[in-house]
Design brief:
Layout lengths: L1 E5 L4 H12 L3 E6 L7 H10 L4 E4 L5 H10 L2 E6 L6 H6 L1 H21 L4 E7 L22 H19 L4 E7 L1 E3 L18 H10 L5 E4 L11 E2 L1 E3 H15 L4 E7 L5 E2 H12 L5 E4 L14 H6 L8 H14 L22
Parallel strand pairs: 1-2, 1-4, 2-3, 4-5, 5-6, 6-11, 7-10, 8-13
Antiparallel strand pairs: 9-12
């Protein structure tokens, strides 16, 4: 029996596939590669010494999705695939509703047709909008502040309704806080297209020489040093959270949702200082205006996942920074082959 991983060639998806394979599960990747690289599949196979079947299709191609289910014995689905850039969603909301919602509806319809009713859904802490208090627990008020977050909220509501209509479904929504870091081998990592929206890939691109300076978006927040505070979680901890969710879905039906965070908040300056210290690099930065829509502080109350899933983040901030930098050093241009003579040359790149 296989686990179908939509968006399995993406940042969190690829790390989760490695964890699934290392736990002896069979994995099928379904990805349109619009924001990922087919090289990732080869890396996953090399790292796990396992063959990975993958399909390069758009989830909105319902017939193609139908064929994947017809041609494979699928036990469960982990649904990562979706557009995820907050700023882009504000500029082009229709493309987010079209892509994230229609593809999910088609996936769910095909799952129902083939009686596949175990689903882990990649949700996000953005469903909490502007939290009224921290730490943020799962019963906190839900309110999206952008179209991307609204697609996550709408999908969670769809899944809740599906379970209410048919209690044979086993559904878990995982609300990620801020995933950073990379697999310790340096073979997988975050490789955003264009200018990184998120903090850590921007930092690693400054460190590798691809970008001259980090812009810190505001230092006037009511936080320890005025810069934004977030709950950063190692992507390998996040991957393991999906394994725990899947194991639970094998035993019980239901509709559940859990925060995946460490419960600790770090400021932007703390991230920069830690990254510089543990990696012996310098990250030049300038303080600019706050980014529109940014909230001052967000970090999780992680107790529900500990009691409900038996999952707790294990890796600390130093490990996140060391692993993120190893990935970028080994892959100065990410997964793409184009060389950039201005970048630091990576050491002898070796698969480990
Ligand atoms: C973190 C902090 C910025 C970049 C986003 C998405 C959310 C989720 C995680 C998918 C903030 C500051 C950032 C930079 C900076 N993704 N920053 N300079 O905004 O908490 O959440 O990613 O689910 O949906 O909204 O993460 O990494 O963009 O920002 O100063 O160049 O770093 O202001 O305080 P965010 P982020």
């Amino acid at each position: 029996m296989s686990v179908l991983v939509t968006g399995g060639a993406g940042y969190i998806g690829s790390h989760t596939c490695v964890s699934l394979l290392n736990r002896g599960m069979d994995v099928i990747i379904l990805d349109d590669f619009s924001n990922s690289n087919q090289k990732v599949v080869q890396r996953i196979e090399h790292m796990t010494k396992k063959e990975v079947k993958y399909y390069s299709i758009d989830l909105k191609d319902k017939d193609a999705v139908h064929s994947v289910f017809a041609d494979n014995e699928i036990e469960a689905v982990i649904h990562f695939a979706g557009y995820k850039a907050v700023g882009e969603s504000v500029v082009n909301p229709l493309s987010y509703y079209d892509n994230n919602l229609i593809s999910t509806i088609y996936l769910l319809q095909v799952m129902k047709q083939f009686n596949v009713k175990k689903l882990v859904f990649s949700s996000s802490a953005t469903v909490y909008g502007r939290p009224k208090q921290v730490p943020i627990a799962e019963n906190a008020h839900l309110s999206a502040t952008n179209p991307y977050g609204r697609t996550k909220l709408i999908i969670e509501d769809m899944l809740r309704d599906i379970y209410a209509s048919d209690n044979d479904w086993a559904i878990t929504c995982l609300r990620y806080f801020n995933p950073i870091g990379a697999h310790p081998s340096g073979n997988l990592g975050e490789d955003p297209r264009g200018i990184p929206n998120n903090l850590m890939p921007y930092i690693t691109q400054v460190a590798i020489g691809k970008r001259p300076v980090l812009q810190i978006f505001g230092d006037g927040f009511s936080t320890k040093d005025g810069t934004g505070v977030r709950d950063y979680i190692h992507v390998m901890d996040l991957a393991e959270g999906h394994i725990c969710a899947l194991e639970q879905l094998k035993k019980v039906t239901g509709f559940n949702f859990y925060n995946l965070g460490t419960g600790k908040g770090y400021s932007v300056l703390e991230i920069v200082q830690t990254f510089e210290r543990v990696n012996h690099v310098n990250i030049p930065y300038i303080i600019t205006d706050a980014r529109m829509g940014d909230i001052p502080i967000s970090y999780a109350d992680p107790t529900a996942a500990a009691t409900g899933l038996g999952w707790k983040a294990q890796r600390g901030l130093e490990e996140m920074c060391i692993d993120a930098w190893r990935w970028q050093k080994n892959n100065p241009t990410g997964y793409s082959d184009k060389k950039n003579p201005h970048l630091m040359q990576s050491g002898d790149f070796s698969f480990s």
